[in-house]
Amino acid sequence: MGIYSSNMATIKIIGTAKKVHTRSIRSAANFFCDHLLKRLSKTVYVEIKLKKNLYKNTRCFGFATWTDDEARNHRRFEIEMDADLGPVFLFRTLAHELVHVRQYARKQLIDMQYGSYQKWHGVMFNEHMVEYKKLPWEIEATQLEKELYNLWKEHLERQGEKGEKVGYRKTT
Ligand SMILES: [Zn+2]
């Protein structure tokens, strides 16, 4: 059910989500990576960590960062997501964080790794001076998470799944 086969991005999942099967998360991650990264997809490694109390501890539902610190072109990434997100929320958060992965992989977004500066298409931004919703990389991620989620849902519906059952775990 809902399996998307891809020979592309390497996805590793650590931990389990409360309401979504690991295999559905993997399929969705491959689907989103293929759509976002195209040919680049097969060169990336993404570790997805499902964490209890992530939101409680950080006030964030998800994070994306690279783990190959020394690399000039980042290809290894880590995504953290709250393990208790419901299916729609979880898939949208996953899509959102993978948009950030693309931004890093393509060097559209560069973390300056000191202070809170980031560079977007060559322009410096200070995260503390610009409202979250107005940061250009967040605008892009927020817009694309919805489009990607809808594509994923359509893909599953074509496979004969009911929209509202997308990715639900049958057992608790
Ligand atoms: Zn974001």
Secondary structure layout plus pairing:
Blueprint: E1 10-14, H1 22-37, E2 45-51, H2 54-58, E3 62-66, E4 76-82, H3 87-105, E5 109-111, E6 117-120, E7 123-126, H4 136-158
Parallel strand pairs: 1-2, 2-4
Antiparallel strand pairs: 3-4, 5-6, 6-7
Helix pairs in contact: 1-3, 3-4
The chain binds zinc ion.
Description:
With 172 residues, the protein is an alpha/beta fold. The chain has one domain: Collagenase (Catalytic Domain). 37% of the residues lie in helices and 20% in strands. The chain has four helices and seven strands, in the order E-H-E-H-E-E-H-E-E-E-H. The chain has a four-stranded mixed sheet with strand order 1-2-4-3, with helices on one face. The chain has a three-stranded antiparallel sheet with strand order 5-6-7. Helix 3 crosses helix 4. 33% of the residues are buried. Zinc ion (ZN) binds next to helix 3 and helix 4.
Comma- or semicolon-separated keywords:
172 residues; alpha/beta; Collagenase (Catalytic Domain); three-stranded antiparallel β-sheet; binds zinc ion
Question: How is this structure best summarized?
Answer:
The chain is α/β, with parallel strands linked by helices. The chain contains 4 helices and 7 strands.
Structural class determined from secondary elements: alpha/beta
- Number of helices, where a helix is a run of at least 4 consecutive DSSP H or I residues: 4
CATH class: Alpha Beta
H/E series: EHEHEEHEEEH
Strand order of the largest sheet: 1-2-4-3
Biggest sheet descriptor: 4 strands, mixed
Strand percentage lies at 15-25%
CATH topology: Collagenase (Catalytic Domain)
Percent helix: 25-40%
Structurally, how many domains make up the residues?
A: 1
| Average pLDDT, all residues | 89
CATH-derived architecture? 3-Layer(aba) Sandwich
In total, the number of strands is 7
**Unreliable segments (pLDDT under 50, ≥5 consecutive)?**
none
Give the bound compounds: zinc ion
Taken from the alpha-carbon principal axes, the silhouette is: globular
* Separation, N- and C-terminal Cα atoms: 18 Å
